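Write out this protein's structure.
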Amino acid sequence: MNANGQKKNGNDDGNDGIRIIEEIVEGFWDCPNCNAKNSGSAQQCEACGAIRSENVKFYVEDGARVITDTKELEAARSGPDWICAFCSNMSPAASPVCTGCGSARSDGKKREVKEVLPDSGKKAGGNRDEPPVPVKPAPLWLKAGCGVIALLLLILTFLSCQEKPARIEITANQWVRTIERAEYKTVREDNWAGEVPSGARKVSSARQIRSHKDVPDGFETVDENYYEKVKVGEKRVEDGKVDLGNGRFQVKYRVVPEYKEEKRTRRVRRQKYRKEPVYDEKVTYDIDRWVPIAEVKNQGTTADPQWPESGASNNVVPRVGDISEKSKAEVYTVKARKVGESAEFEIKKLRDKPLGFEQFMKLRVNTQWEAIFSGLGDLRDIKFQ
């Protein structure tokens, strides 16, 4: 330990450049009589004069004064205070009699020297309670707004779950039927030899560059960038503290080096390479494939739904010019209004399912049906029976 109360050690933990420093710092205690804050070494309250009794607890704060005076350091290291058995006053370890009532030290007991646990919820290393941080109440307008939104959501949910009957009349309908098609055609393609599909008919071929490979081609001297870790400073990290039992604390720090990456340049000799082409045979060929062509569509309002003519062939083995059906799609739409009302609405789904052919065929113009609506006015279903 140096003259400033610091004890320095080398790389005790084997870590790169980490040093350990120990300091003796001044603590505090609060007067139980008037709650005044006193320096740890004070034997009496500096505000009201009350004695520092055995119930007093020491604490230390961040940035506490480091003790450097030789006599103060000697007093801090002399040991914990002792508590008088007659008046509960605390006296320094070096005092043979109680500084409060004069009783002999042999009848007293020593304060405990103990390690201060971190994250205790109080000031670092101490027992001075932090006042709770008051929670700022939410403004009245925000509370009212949240209440209104919650009420609206509750109402909407309630109405959505309700079901109401009503009679409807069909005013119009429309259907659309579509077929996607493909034609069996001869198409011309090219690919590398070995990747030509079966059934292809070769038209021509040519030797072409397919890729390049790196081939060693001597050496060259070039500038190369690299990064080097450079020490730029140090920081202290607290590594524990001990309550010395006399109003002072011993604090241990790890002095950790800080680094940054700096860019450097160096001359290096390295292998050169040249790009050498790799040749392969490119084949042009004809092949018969199914190729998508324009879809066909039928739509109407009054006539029964009919599929359009797709021109599909029935050949088991396809021939060039044949047409096939790939997929079919049908969409049915009905317009209706509630009996006695003029506003129209569109029906494409019932119970979240698309309107089907059989349902569409029943919903003819001018027919009337019993229907079910939600509390929000949305059509849910139609009673077909």
